[in-house]
Write a structure and sequence with these properties.
- This protein is of the alpha/beta class.
- The protein contains 8 helices and 10 strands.
- The protein has a domain at 7-84 and 160-255: P-loop containing nucleotide triphosphate hydrolases (Rossmann fold), CATH 3.40.50.
- It has helices at residues 51-58, 76-81, 100-110, 115-128, 144-156, 174-191, 202-208, 242-255, and strands spanning 7-19, 24-36, 40-44, 66-71, 74-75, 85-88, 162-166, 194-199, 211-216, 221-227.
- The chain has a 6-stranded mixed β-sheet with strand order 6-7-8-3-9-10, with helices on both faces. A 4-stranded antiparallel β-sheet has the order 2-1-4-5.
- Helix 3 (100-110) packs parallel to helix 5 and helix 7 packs across helix 8 (242-255).
- The protein is globular and about 55 Å long.
- The structure holds adenosine-5'-triphosphate.
- Residues 18, 20, 25, 27, 45, 47-53, 200 line the site of adenosine-5'-triphosphate.
Length: 258
């Protein structure tokens, strides 16, 4: 999978100020960056540095106080209305009374897609996330990692151009998380979406991304953009390579002194 040079998401001087009764929080200040079509980028930073805020601005769930965002040359609102986004949250938001296949089917039903096409697409998605044998189970019968795979399949149902993921694996154990990182890359190589992935894990951001956007807190600023030149496909052994350790060290250095 290679990213094209066309900017898919353009953030220009984005600032976000939250107003509560007594206080004001400057959550983001002057974030300017382009994300290319087909690129996999991570937003990395400590708790409270504005990662979720930035993702929500990209998704058109909240409006920035200042600055402009363009998605494929149009507003984020136009992109949302054109169903360009798939979103995966930290905890999988699944309907417990619907079977796995019905959860994945939901956005397709809502869009009025014909039954035969829906069935074909759900089968493809189940295969993509490796859950064919579990399609008739209910979410509560699945492990946390499997539930998150259902959420990913559902987010991909409308074939979104852009997949926005907010710490999707942070509640999972280390083994499951690393395994799902590999699966996510395999899925991404097949669907070709642009991915924006929020994490506070340095190794996770390196393993997944083409570029890592390092955010520093109070106020949230883009303090560095780090290229990850590791070859693709990424393999588990890369996590133990000198190049990987060097990138961890480089990114740690970005946090020093901020
Ligand atoms: N709705 C809100 N009202 C007021 N302040 C908010 C609101 N949402 C976020 N904030 C504040 O904005 C800052 C950035 O929050 P945000 O959730 O974007 O950070 P984050 O990097 O995603 O954190 P975490 O890793 O803990 O999820 C924080 O100081 C937070 O308290």
């Amino acid at each position: 999978m290679t990213a094209s040079s066309t900017p898919e998401i353009q953030l220009d001087q984005i600032s976000m100020r939250y107003q509560t009764n007594s206080t004001e929080v400057l959550a983001l200040q002057d974030v300017t960056v382009d994300i290319k079509k087909g690129e996999f980028v991570s937003l990395l930073g400590p708790s409270g540095c504005g990662k979720t805020t930035l993702l929500r601005i990209m998704a058109d769930l909240i409006q920035p106080t200042n600055g402009e965002i363009k998605v494929a040359g149009e507003s984020a609102r136009a992109a949302r209305l054109a169903q360009k986004y798939g979103i995966v949250f930290q905890s999988p938001v699944l309907y417990d009374w619907r079977r796995v296949k019905q959860n994945i089917n939901l956005p397709l039903e809502m869009m009025g897609i014909k039954k035969a096409e829906r069935e074909e697409r759900v089968d493809y998605l189940l295969e993509l996330v490796g859950l064919q044998d579990f399609k008739n189970k209910y979410p509560w019968q699945l492990s946390g990692g499997m539930q998150q795979r259902v959420a990913i399949a559902r987010a991909l149902a409308m074939e979104p151009e852009i997949l926005l993921m907010d710490e999707p694996f942070s509640a999972l154990d280390e083994f499951t998380r690393e395994h799902l990182n590999e699966e996510l890359l395999s899925i991404w190589s097949k669907v070709g979406s642009t991915v924006v992935f929020v994490t506070h894990s340095i190794p996770e951001s390196i393993f997944l991304s083409d570029r890592v956007f390092v955010l520093s807190p109070h106020p949230g600023r883009l303090s560095a953009v780090v290229d990850i030149p590791l070859p693709r496909p990424r393999t588990p052994d890369m996590r133990h390579s000198p190049a990987f350790y060097q990138l961890i060290s480089d990114i740690r250095d970005c946090f020093e002194g901020v």
